Amino acid sequence: MRAAWFDSFGSAKDVLQIGELDTPTPSAGEVLVRLKTSGVNPSDVKKRAGSFPNLLDGGHVIPNSDGAGVIEAVGDGVDDARIGERVWVYQAQYGRRFGTAAQYVALDSSRAATLPDNASFEVGACLGIPAMTAHRAVFADGEVAGQTILITGGAGRVGYYAIQWASQAGATVIASASNDVDKATCMDAGAHHVINHRSDNVVDEILAASAGELIDRVVDVEFGANLPFTVEVLKIGGVIATYSSTQLSEPVLPFFTMMYKDLTLRTLIVYAMPEAAKQHAIADIHSGLAADTLQHRIAQTMSLDDIVKSNEIIEQGSIRGAVILTID
């Protein structure tokens, strides 16, 4: 099969290779998916750069965890009826070496979720990390109907889905964006208010949007950098659900302020989600896809041959939507 891989850490142009590898065979409990698309996410790029030093101990790695395609074969214990099923794939390159930047992937049947006929394979490659992370961030601490939720970086890959999950579940959503284009994107996704997180008066803007009331939850893309104002606008018993802290990777916590407010800090990553939470997200994603109530942001689509460029685009941070590779 045609595939991309790396066998050393480094820059995309220096370590990513494209060529022929053996087509995998599904083991017991697995399905073999003929991939049509592969999603490139920041975590995939970071792995290639060396964020997991032991990743290459077993040999070369085929990158990317997300993708979509059609099941062509099944291993023992998997119903033959799944052959021919359109699926979206998640967690393909987690705790294992072989991801979705290839024509085929063999993986646990539970990691290949049904893709409704009305959803494209490009959409299918958007779902694993962005949509599931957003779902967990919004719903991990209970129902949100009637609550007010601040979603920082609302035009980003995760924030865009978080706005939709929260607003469609009955929450009042205040999103943050730094320019008019991103503001319009947030409003289109379902945000009720959009504030500028770079404003000198960000707390005042948030409270003006919430009619002076402290808010219930924050879904946060930059935990450390945003902590000074998120703590201030949260009510007693509030929640911060965060999935990234790039600007301040080792933030200092205002412990007593957080303690006196009885705040919950939830750090999350899709790979470590409880299995029940994954299945909850999959069920809601399927319903949203089937009913066509989820919007998706695909910034660029390119071929597997352009995998170096795709990694560089992600690293530059110049786009908001998903980067998708098409697999011939």
How does this model look, in words?
By secondary structure, the chain is α/β, with parallel strands linked by helices. The chain folds into two domains: 2-126 and 296-326, Quinone Oxidoreductase, Chain A, domain 1 (Alpha-Beta Complex); 130-271, Rossmann fold, CATH 3.40.50. 31% of the residues lie in helices and 25% in strands. It is built from eleven helices and 15 strands. The strands form three sheets. Strands 3, 4, 5, 6, 7, 14 and 15 form a seven-stranded mixed β-sheet that branches. Helix 8 (223-233) links the parallel strand 11 and strand 12 (234-242). Helix 4 (127-139) crosses helix 5 (157-168), helix 4 (127-139) packs across helix 10 and helix 7 crosses helix 8. It is globular and about 60 Å long. The termini are close together. 47% of the residues are buried. The model has no long low-confidence stretch (mean pLDDT 96).
